[in-house]
Write a structure and sequence with these properties.
The protein is globular. It has 2 domains: 91 residues, Rossmann fold (3-Layer(aba) Sandwich); 112 residues, 3 Solenoid (UDP N-Acetylglucosamine Acyltransferase, domain 1), CATH 2.160.10. The mean pLDDT is 96. An 8-stranded mixed β-sheet has the order 5-8-11-14-17-20-22-23, with helices on one face. The protein contains 2 helices and 23 strands. By secondary structure, the chain is mainly β.
């Protein structure tokens, strides 16, 4: 029996705990040992959760430990996942029992595939990808490592989501379009064209968000 440890004990961590108890293999292949978080009081007032064991920085890996990272911000997910990998930590993929996964789908390690998400045929999902509840991934889509695919989002068929891209709540990528690496598609936005790497786009159709510089002199 593997012992799952969830990196992050705050709101998203609690969501992942509950999802893990409803995921394939729970109680048969793995149980849940607890959380890692440097905010020791993160669970104060929250009943029914396992304990915070330690911080990621200080935790000593035990026999049969496996990990998932429940941090919503891609930058922190990369940081703390790599920190644990450097210690020799092993990551597992959680797949909720209600997720739909079609034919010829490839899913990497350390992924979170949450409730009622739909992954259609011939899709490739990289490592450490989060696919939130009710997201829909169209046929032949490629999602690279570290991506965050939000709740009620849609990736049209043959779309390409590059490394570390984030799709926020209810956003849509048009078929055959690409989100560049570490780009962000804002909530309720529609990417009708390719999105450049490192940009934040919002709206319908989505346009780059330009934040004006403030002259502090």
């Amino acid at each position: 029996m593997k012992h799952l440890i969830i990196i992050g004990a705050r709101g998203f961590g609690r969501e992942i705990y509950n999802s893990a108890t409803e995921s394939i293999g729970y109680g048969e292949e793995f149980d849940i040992r607890g959380f890692l978080d440097d905010k020791k009081d993160a669970l104060d007032g929250k009943a029914g959760y396992p304990q915070i064991l330690d911080s990621v920085e200080n935790y000593a890996i035990q026999e049969d430990d496996v990990f998932v990272c429940a941090l919503g911000d891609v930058r922190y997910k990369v940081k703390y996942t790599k920190m644990m990998l450097d210690k020799g930590g092993e990551f597992m993929t959680l797949i909720h029992k209600t997720a739909y996964i079609s034919k010829n789908v490839e899913i990497g390690k350390g992924c979170l595939i949450l409730a009622d998400s739909r992954i259609h045929c011939d899709v490739k999902v990289g490592n450490y990808v989060t696919i939130q509840p009710k997201a829909t991934i169209g046929h032949d889509t490629i999602i690279e490592d570290w991506c965050m695919i939000g709740t009620l989002t849609c990736c049209g068929g043959v779309s390409y989501i590059e490394e570390g891209a984030t799709m926020h709540l209810c956003s849509v990528v048009s078929p055959n379009k690409r989100l560049g690496s570490y780009s962000v598609l804002g909530a309720c936005s529609f990417a009708a064209r390719n999105v450049k790497s490192g940009t934040v786009v919002i709206g319908v159709p989505a346009k780059e968000l330009i934040i004006p510089k403030i002259d502090r002199q």
